[in-house]
Amino acid sequence: MSGSTEGSAAGAVRFATVSSEPIGVEQCIEAVSRDHAGAVVSFAGVVRDHDEGKGVTALSYTGHPSAQDAIEEAARRIAAAHPETVVAVAHRVGDLVVGDIALACAVSSAHRQEAFAACSELVDLVKQTVPIWKEQLFDDGSSEWVAALG
């Protein structure tokens, strides 16, 4: 995966990427696993079959040209805020169907509390700061654009 960023004493980022290729939590877990880590927390944001009472058949994610820089910055911020962690994160762009992974990440740490906190903050920060938008396609033939920010 591209977008690799090595960390310092203030945490480490193994990779942070926006990808048109399928992504997986396993890649993130493998990237952050280390002998010192007693905890590896992962997250998979999966395309679901509904939204606000409507059936969803597919999504299309579109990233702004700055999305790669933004996801790298988000990962660096989390690693710096949690200096004992190692972080990996990927967000998918392009056409996805129900069951596909749209966002995958993992964080490792010596202890679970810090890994859980950092992983949760990472997901929130990516959703808040990375300029990626999604078009939802509904089973009634309609569609709508939704900002993935916020």
How does this model look, in words?
The chain is α+β, with helices and mostly antiparallel strands. It has three helices and nine strands, in the order E-H-E-E-E-H-E-E-E-H-E-E. It has helices spanning 25-32, 67-81, 112-129; strands at residues 12-19, 39-46, 50-51, 54-63, 86-92, 94-97, 101-109, 132-138, 143-147. The strands form two sheets. Strands 3, 4, 6, 8 and 9 form a five-stranded antiparallel sheet that branches. Strands 1-5-7-2 form a four-stranded mixed sheet. Strand 3 (50-51) and strand 4 form a beta hairpin. The longest helix is centred in the last third of the chain and has 18 residues, at 112-129. The radius of gyration is 15 Å and the shape is elongated. Mean pLDDT is 92; it is low at 4-9.
Give a quick summary of the entry.
By secondary structure, the chain is an alpha+beta fold. The chain has 3 helices and 9 strands. Strand 8 and strand 9 form a beta hairpin.
Strand content: 35-45%
Count of individual helical segments: 3
- Number-wise, the strands total 9
Sheet of most strands: 5 strands, antiparallel
Overall helicity: 25-40%
Q: Termini, distance in Å?
A: 26 Å
What is the CA-atom radius of gyration, in angstroms? 15 Å
Regions with pLDDT < 50 over 5+ consecutive residues?
A: 4-9
**Mean pLDDT level:** 92
Name the overall outline.
Answer: elongated
Counting helices, strands and paired strands, the structural category is alpha+beta
Topology as a string of helices (H) and strands (E)? EHEEEHEEEHEE
